[in-house]
């Protein structure tokens, strides 16, 4: 009985330690809501998000809503998409992408800036880390290029972002552009 209690205590303590480590059950999950993502677009000076008229990419529901981004003249300059809690190794990141009407990536924002200095966004200066520029202009047919896309200290994360972006750009092309759902 004594051995059983000691073994149980060891298991409970090991579980408590695991729960507190990055990647354990207590990994920080995003608390951002729709308003927080639309504010990022506005704060960076990329436009205003029209949350009333989203474009739904066929049968994908809320994971693939594309919200029009409007300039000051209320013209559509792109479409914003975001994903909360994308699993990256032992943590979660939020990703926001603005896609041009031609299906290329216009802008990118990554939420876990403290982990990825090369993806950092400075809202005061409206500037972003050098790694973000590697992905601007990409389309759904672009392949990963180890020579240029690897990011020191964040290569695994960059590869995961690349995969998410490639998937969302393909979805945008097929279910928005090719389906004739672009807002004029």
Would you write up a description of this structure?
This protein has five helices and eight strands. It is α+β, with helices and mostly antiparallel strands. It has two domains: 1-28; 31-177, no CATH class. Strands 1, 2, 3, 4, 5 and 6 form a six-stranded antiparallel β-sheet that branches. A two-stranded antiparallel ribbon has the order 7-8. Strand 5 and strand 6 form a beta hairpin. Residues 16-23 have low confidence and may be disordered. This is FMN-binding domain-containing protein. Residues 1-19 form the signal peptide. Keywords: Signal.
Core attributes:
5 helices; 184 residues; two-stranded antiparallel sheet; 33% helix; alpha+beta; single chain
How would you briefly describe this protein structure?
By secondary structure, the chain is of the alpha+beta class.
Order of helices and strands, N to C? HHEEEEEEEEHHH
Shape: globular
How far is the first residue's CA from the last residue's CA? Answer: 74 Å
Number of spatially distinct domains: 2
**Alpha-beta content class:** alpha+beta
Mean pLDDT: 79
Signal peptide: 1-19
Protein name: FMN-binding domain-containing protein
Keywords: Signal
Please specify the SSE layout and strand pairing:
Layout (H helix, E strand, L loop, with lengths): L1 H19 L13 H10 L4 E2 L5 E2 L8 E6 L5 E13 L2 E9 L5 E6 L10 E2 L4 E2 L1 H4 L12 H4 L5 H23 L7
Antiparallel strand pairs: 1-3, 2-3, 3-4, 4-5, 5-6, 7-8
Keywords: Signal
Protein name: FMN-binding domain-containing protein
Organism: uncultured spirochete
């Amino acid at each position: 009985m004594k051995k059983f209690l000691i073994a149980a205590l060891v298991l409970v303590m090991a579980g408590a330690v695991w729960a507190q480590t990055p990647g354990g059950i207590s990994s920080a999950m995003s608390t951002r809501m729709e308003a927080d993502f639309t504010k990022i677009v506005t704060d960076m000076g990329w436009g205003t998000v029209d949350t009333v008229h989203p474009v739904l990419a066929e049968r994908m529901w809320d994971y693939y809503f594309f919200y029009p981004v409007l300039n000051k003249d209320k013209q559509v300059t792109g479409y914003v998409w975001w994903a909360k809690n994308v699993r990256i190794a032992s943590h979660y990141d939020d990703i926001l992408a603005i896609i041009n009407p031609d299906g290329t990536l216009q802008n990118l924002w990554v939420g876990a800036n403290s982990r990825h200095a090369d993806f950092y966004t400075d809202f005061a200066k409206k500037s972003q880390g050098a790694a973000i520029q590697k992905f601007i202009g990409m389309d759904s047919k672009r392949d990963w290029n180890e020579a240029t896309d690897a990011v020191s200290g964040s290569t695994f994360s960059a590869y995961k972002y690349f995969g998410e972006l490639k998937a969302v750009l393909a979805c945008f092309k097929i279910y928005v552009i090719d389906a004739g759902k672009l807002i004029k």
